[in-house]
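Colleagues,

Please find the record for the two-part complex below.
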Amino acid sequence: MARTIVIVGTLDTKGEEIGFIRDFIEQKGHKALIVDGGITGSVPFAPDISRDEVAGAAGKTLAEIVSLGNEGAAIATMADGAAKIVHTLYNARSVDAIIGVGGSMGTSLGLAAMKHLPVGFPKLMVSTIAFTPLVTVDTMAMDQMMMQSPVDLWGLNVVTRRILESAAAAIVGMAEASERIVVEKPLVAITTRGILKYVNWIKPMLEERGYEVVVIHAVGMVGGKTLETVARHKMLCSVLDLCIGEVIEELNGGALRAGSDRLEAAGQMGIPQIVAPGSMEFWHWPGSVDTAPKDRKLHIHNPLVLGVKATTEEMVQAARTVAEKLNRAKGPVTFLFPLLGFDAHDQPGGAFYDPEGRAGFLAALKAAAGPNIKLVELNLHINDKAFADEVVSEFDKVIAGSPSCQTQ
Amino acid sequence: MARTIVIVGTLDTKGEEIGFIRDFIEQKGHKALIVDGGITGSVPFAPDISRDEVAGAAGKTLAEIVSLGNEGAAIATMADGAAKIVHTLYNARSVDAIIGVGGSMGTSLGLAAMKHLPVGFPKLMVSTIAFTPLVTVDTMAMDQMMMQSPVDLWGLNVVTRRILESAAAAIVGMAEASERIVVEKPLVAITTRGILKYVNWIKPMLEERGYEVVVIHAVGMVGGKTLETVARHKMLCSVLDLCIGEVIEELNGGALRAGSDRLEAAGQMGIPQIVAPGSMEFWHWPGSVDTAPKDRKLHIHNPLVLGVKATTEEMVQAARTVAEKLNRAKGPVTFLFPLLGFDAHDQPGGAFYDPEGRAGFLAALKAAAGPNIKLVELNLHINDKAFADEVVSEFDKVIAGSPSCQTQ
């Protein structure tokens, strides 16, 4: 079946490259739909969606965009227009995949057009700056595919032809296999980290009950941020948010921040959630070991991952923030509190063992939690098998009242 | 034609994911060749290359690797073994593409297996940490393709199935289109940056003469570092290394460093080179604007790209380093010196205009350059059309004595 693949780029500077990808796609029997985000310079051939149409989708004329006099602002406006066009095509089920090609300007254009397309929709950016610090994770889609061009995209040569052919072949392969995700079994998300064990028990127990389990590695922008996005896409029937350490990261400028709206999406969408304070006794230093505070307990996981013990005050503040977020939830919330420890570091002999901090967290949580939060204190460590059993037992109770969580 | 695709990963933790990709590949009529880099845990099915064979390729037994007692060192050794096996397969022309799948351990394993495979050979890593700071550009192949898994790879579910299917479809598409790069026209590489203009003139002049031109954006590890690697792969007949700013970056800890061996590969391989001091009057600050030295001239290209004017002393040191590197070249070297300026910043009214620094650079270069270097002073700015004409004129002379640079 012929598929339609969007190519987004700037025809004035990358016309040869875009034409090469188009030809490959058409030779494979598919349709290429070129969206031109270029601003100045001449166009070697007519695209399917012109720069004027892209500017128009952003609510401007091309002349207005050029008159911004700032290349960065201009490309951001064109990116906005391109993204709107691509979303309209997606919603009309008129496209099956998207590929972008560019240097620094084309990359920002292409990534913007891809960023908010749903998970599972094939999206590939071929870029000369794919893995430089110029491209940050917050500019990308959650399931972004990126290909580094080893040489500059400055016309076709024996190297760029091979790279572009490979990229075109990849997007054609993906377009041919492209399917929208259809959730058949009710889907439950669990957040965790390597220092937490409950998934090993909870996952098979839920699967036996007929659920599918998505595991979220709660490590920031590619972790808890994903949970928030997937929840907003209405894919989840329940959230077991048992590792919410990204909240304390956010409050203290930690390296694993997932944005200020972490722990909010499930509540906003009314999705039943069971929450626990996994990894809420520390956060990650965003610099090298030698710049870390000398007066804190530290845990060096590897040279890039450096845990810093939170103070009781920081933990109290985190508890208040957690309560404030959960108080606003539109769905049921159960908070399971493992009195004996928050992760493998927080146990006798562990790097961050802290009964006092835990007690401070609990007191603050109790004081700030509204009546919608069911708070259950368990005389267990979060890594005990019995804790996992309690989570599943609570899950069984909570989802009894949730139609979207019923299995066949 | 059936193709062979290597799948590299750890069967103990990613068995389901690897099996899923294998099944997709086989359903498309191709052969999957599984290389298991796992160390502990049980194996759900037998791979084509076992963990014992991988350990053996690294010159160890699996027991020796386990007894290292350090997960990082163990996976590095397995990565070394996997890379050796993959290279043997490549050299025997037994493989057409490689895909890796993993979390942080599997990603380090997969990237190591891919890193030294030639440019143009399809290489895709599906990773839960693709765009985190844990993955740095020096761990990747020059034309690496990476796909971010939006959720943890912890068994199959409706999300991971779609992601893995898309990835498998991409690598199958690339394998089907896979060809080794065959250089038909003599290939000339030119280094440049956005503040340099000569490529606009030189490229068409060389193409008229029957050459192919590869443009290298000299911005560090994905820039000049590539030139060095491509030169070592014997793909180039001549190098026009007219933007060597990465040398002064390296000396001063700049953000656009390309390694300490920059400006050496062409010389080592005996490739004729024409060199000019493009962008040798400044380097890039590796931190934010507020941490930059207050006593230097600065140029903010964008919030991430901050130029710092080099002192005359730094320029003199750079000239000595350049001379020392070029003195060791086994092929002909011409150094074209544009007396009126090194790039668009170094002209009257420019942010880094510096006749004094340039004079210091020239004097130091003259003092340190050996007899093999032909040094030509030109009363031109590097962005003058006449400078580009001089480069091409010199190229015509130099390649007259170079059999690999003769066009049909």
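Residues 327 and 370 of chain A are 5 Å apart (CA to CA).

Comments are welcome before we finalize the supplementary table.
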